[in-house]
Design goal:
The protein has helices at residues 15-21, 40-44, 51-63, 69-79, 107-122, 138-147, 166-173, 188-199, 202-207, 218-224, 226-237, 253-263, 280-287, 311-317, 322-326, 336-350, 356-371, 395-398, 405-408, 424-432; strands at 3-5, 8-13, 30-32, 86-90, 93-97, 129-134, 153-160, 179-184, 209-212, 243-248, 270-275, 329-333, 377-382, 418-420. It is α/β, with parallel strands linked by helices. The protein has a domain at 83-101 and 220-398: Rossmann fold. A 6-stranded mixed sheet has the order 4-5-13-10-11-12, sandwiched between helices. It has a 5-stranded parallel sheet with strand order 9-6-7-8-14, with helices on both faces.
């Protein structure tokens, strides 16, 4: 499979080049030259296949012969060694739990697959691969654990000062080995801009072998399609064939992957983009004008993105047809007060503890169902374990959170982090001084 830039349909590169370049020189994002249609028999009988079997079939259709089948099987077995269960809450509502990986966030799917793909494709390369990642909370932790100890790689994580939770910060700053963290005195958008500027700096590109671990990298996007197919498989086993997915959305890679799965043949009734007050996309879908704004800090920090990078991929998937996109995707936005009320309501109604991102997805699912009653299932995505946000919950809910062992072990670790202003020259200098 060849990949092109969203800014230049005529450009074609190999999967390997797309993975290691991350961003085309024209500042677009890579997309597969065609969206393959999966065998209808496979789709109709998804319940017969495991997550790993589904992942292989989907990845194979997108990568073609770029990776031999035996090697692709091995990569997927190693990367996807945890589950993503769909848990029914009532007759028409279920939650897709995506936090059962090592970093307790949905980003584990993309980070673990990508790290193993990069290690495989690096082969006999002797130069060190410098992996850059901007994070609003969960991406960095997943990437850190995905690449920790991987030979021939160095990972630099940028995160906004004071805008990640204490558990998230420990996951970013206590790994050591080939992982280092930079606390940027700015927003996530500032961190993301520094990473993008690094890729567009010719001097850096000559001196370092740079790649990105953000969802701008196509190797992050592909594995996120897997859990949509797998969720539908679980619904089929329950006799459910019509589904609406409600997705907490920040940088729009998660819902972008779902829409790619839809284009590959997954029969989804509708997607809901659930955002916090960083509502660039909901405003665009309403007005047709794309007007990014500086990001605003909220309780759902992983969604604090004012200019979502992956939106260009979604527009590309739909050939920039806004009317066609509106037929598939709805969008709703909620503030912190509404998020806190939703957390309490979910707990009172179901006895379920939802992180703030998950609560926003539930709110959007509820809003959509009230506006569009019918016989279908709404599945809202739970993207992070609630233990990452202890300060958000009232005492009676916080007491019900079971703290995983991997979080308990973080508490005694030594934090290692460098502080930097929003200054590309300082960031570049730091990269070039990496021992």
């Amino acid at each position: 499979m060849q990949f092109y830039s969203t800014n230049n349909n005529g450009l074609r590169v190999s999967f390997k080049e797309a993975v290691f370049n991350s961003l085309p020189a024209d500042r677009g994002l890579y997309m597969p030259e065609r969206i393959p249609q999966l065998d209808p028999y496979f789709i109709q009988n998804l319940q017969q296949y495991s997550l790993q079997e589904i992942a292989f079939t989907v990845a194979k259709s997108l990568l073609g012969e770029d990776i031999p089948e035996a090697d692709l099987h091995a990569i997927i077995r190693d990367a996807m060694d945890f589950e993503a269960p769909v848990k029914p809450l009532d007759s028409g509502t279920a939650v897709l739990e995506l936090f059962h990986g090592p970093s307790l966030a949905f980003k584990d799917f993309g980070a673990r697959f990508m790290s193993r793909i990069m290690a495989y494709l690096s082969g006999e390369e002797k130069s060190v691969l410098d992996v850059l990642v901007a994070t609003s909370g969960d991406t960095g932790g997943a990437v850190a654990l995905g690449f920790l100890g991987v030979l021939g790689t160095r990972v630099t994580i940028l995160y906004p000062k004071g805008k990640v939770s204490p558990v998230q910060e420990l996951q970013l700053t206590t790994n050591g080995q080939n992982i280092r963290s930079i606390e940027v005195d700015g927003t996530f958008d500032d961190c993301q801009s520094l990473v993008k500027e690094a890729f567009n700096d010719e001097d850096l590109r000559k001196k370092l072998r740079l790649t990105s671990a953000n969802s701008i990298n196509i190797a992050r996007l592909i594995p996120q399609t897997f859990y949509y197919f797998n969720a539908y498989a679980q619904l089929l086993s329950q006799g459910i064939k019509e589904v609406v997915f409600s997705v907490p959305s920040g940088n729009f890679g998660n819902i972008g992957a779902g829409l790619m799965a839809y284009k590959m043949g997954l029969p989804v009734k509708r997607f809901i983009a659930a955002t916090n007050v960083n509502d660039t996309v909901p405003r665009f879908l309403e007005s047709g004008n794309y007007e990014p704004r500086p990001s605003v800090q909220t309780l759902a920090n992983a969604m604090d993105v004012g200019n979502p990078s992956n939106w260009v991929r979604i527009m590309d998937l739909f050939d920039h047809d806004v009317a066609g996109l509106r037929k598939v995707i709805s969008a709703y936005t909620y503030n912190d007060s509404e998020t806190q009320i939703a957390i309490q309501t979910i707990f009172n109604r179901y006895g379920y503890v939802a992180c703030p991102h998950t609560a926003i997805a539930w709110l959007a699912a509820e809003t959509y169902r009230q506006q569009h009653p019918g016989a279908y299932a709404t599945v809202f995505l739970s993207t992070a374990h609630p233990c990452k946000f202890p300060e958000v919950f009232p005492p009676e809910i916080a007491a019900k959170i079971i703290i995983p062992e991997q979080v308990k072990t973080l508490k005694g670790r030594r934090k290692e982090v460098m502080e930097l202003p929003v200054d590309f020259a300082a960031f570049k200098s730091h990269l070039l001084k990496y021992p």
